[in-house]
Amino acid sequence: MAKEDILLVDDDPTVLEALAAILRDAGYQVATARSAEEGLRRVQRAMPDLALVDIWLPGLDGLQLLEQLKRASPLLPVIVISGHGTIETAVRATKLGAYDFLEKPPDMERTLLAVRHALDHRRLEEENQQLRQRLHGPRTFCTPHPQVISGGTSIPLRHRARGDAIARGAWGDRPIAESRGLAEGGGMDTTALNPAQELLAQRYH
């Protein structure tokens, strides 16, 4: 069985090579890019199953890249990585649809666990979509125009993820307001959180 395709975007060659080696050793197919623009060109040729994106990139930053990737393929899980992570950055990444938030230097076990969870979540989302379609028949959704990437770069419809029609992405229904509510002293059941929201909960406590 072929392993999933993963796109790594980081301008630090040391981090890029380390992450690529970890994922290839685990059996994944890995493509790398040193900038958001290069990453978008790779996505134009073939949509990956997962993307790991550094926040601090030359030109377009990682959050702008995250936004464009989620617009192109709402079910694409995107894991954000940063060496200078803050609560504000994690909240913004979560709002834009990031599945998880990892800090540098990358830890092998933590990285592989986040990747497995993200890919499993995507598979469940796709299966749920297919089940809904069988139960209710074809439905019309507001999908992005084929010209989904700014700056004149387009992603052909045939390269988009199978679940592109679902606009809510890979996040479930828990609002980000619950995560930010932790700062105000509100308690919550962290067992029900997604990985990025767990990070926020841990930092606030």
Any overview of this molecule?
- This protein has 205 residues and is α/β, with parallel strands linked by helices.
- It has one domain: Response regulator (Rossmann fold, 3-Layer(aba) Sandwich), CATH 3.40.50.2300.
- The protein is 43% helix and 12% strand.
- It is built from seven helices and five strands; from the N terminus they run βαβαβαβαβααα.
- It has a five-stranded parallel β-sheet with strand order 2-1-3-4-5, sandwiched between helices.
- The N and C termini lie far apart (42 Å).
> Between the first and last Cα atoms, what is the distance in angstroms?
42 Å
Largest sheet: 5 strands, parallel
Strand content: 5-15%
Unreliable parts: 141-150, 152-192
* CATH homologous superfamily label: Response regulator
Indicate the CATH architecture. 3-Layer(aba) Sandwich
Number of helix segments?
7
CATH top-level class: Alpha Beta
Helical content (DSSP H or I, runs of 4+)? 40-55%
- What is the number of independent domains? 1
Average pLDDT metric: 77
Tell me the structural class: alpha/beta
Order of helices and strands: EHEHEHEHEHHH
Can you tell me the overall shape?
globular
Strand count: 5
Read across the widest sheet, the strand sequence of neighbours is 2-1-3-4-5
> What's the Cα radius of gyration?
17 Å
Provide the fold topology.
Blueprint: E1 5-9, H1 13-25, E2 29-33, H2 36-45, E3 50-54, H3 62-72, E4 78-82, H4 87-96, E5 100-103, H5 108-136, H6 176-180, H7 195-204
Parallel strand pairs: 1-2, 1-3, 3-4, 4-5
